[in-house]
Write a structure and sequence with these properties.
mainly alpha, 81% helix, 0% strand
């Protein structure tokens, strides 16, 4: 079925014409910010990845991992779906880029965190052997 047919099904007549115009990137600042990757988004994803990996590797709080990772991935993934449903391919591409940036930052931060933890662990072992 075509999106317009799905959109029109079951809606009152006066609402049907407004549904198509309900989502445009210009009117929704949040959607526009999600579909525009920038350095701040990368830094937030780096922090989320590092905090999530620290939480996972030290078994401090399992809930924290989900919250931090969701903050960086869910908005971009949801915006991809909304943009695709409305045929807004510029927003779709931008949101896909945002999701890719976020996932890359999470991967980089998580890997770096594990690497630093390993170096610190090896250092502690060396120091304990000297004593």
């Amino acid at each position: 079925m075509i999106i317009s047919e799905l959109r029109d099904r079951g809606l009152p007549h006066e609402t049907r014409s407004r549904v198509a115009e309900a989502f445009t990137g210009d009117e929704h600042a949040l959607s526009k910010s999600i579909s525009s990757p920038d350095a701040f988004a990368f830094i937030v994803a780096l922090c989320a990845g590092a905090a999530g990996m620290l939480s996972l590797s030290t078994a401090k709080s399992g809930a924290l991992i989900g919250v931090l990772i969701s903050v960086t991935t869910i908005p971009a993934a949801a915006n991809i779906g909304i943009a695709a449903a409305y045929g807004d391919w510029d927003t779709f591409a931008g949101s896909t880029g945002q999701l890719a940036v976020n996932l890359a930052a999470i991967l980089i931060a998580g890997t770096t965190t594990l690497y630093v933890q390993r170096l610190l662990s090896l250092r502690r072992k060396r120091l304990s052997r000297r004593s």
